[in-house]
Amino acid sequence: MEGNYDYYQLYLTAPLTKIAVKMLSSSNIEPSHYPVSVLDGNNISVGTAESKAAYISLWNASNTDIGKLTGGTGPFSFVLELKKGQSIPSKVTGDPVDIFEGIFSNSFGSEFN
Hints:
Distance between the termini: 76 Å
Number of strands: 6
Structural class: alpha+beta
Oligomer: single chain
């Protein structure tokens, strides 16, 4: 410890406000599966998460000014430890990635036309 300031920071600062938030897509629908595209507080994509733990990691890395996200009950439910002075978000955003995209596309050449 460096001095009184460190003591106050470690032991006397007010705890973060904990709120329950759900993951919803950009169209306000709960995703049905992972992977999802992770959007930060400004609705900018910051990566793709294959699991809930990966979503938490990506979200926390890009939203340090808002607070800290931890797991809640269920696959798309979280607890947000909101930093002082931040407004409560209505949701955290994750847009489902279509895992079947391109599987059924036509890949035949002109010999079948």
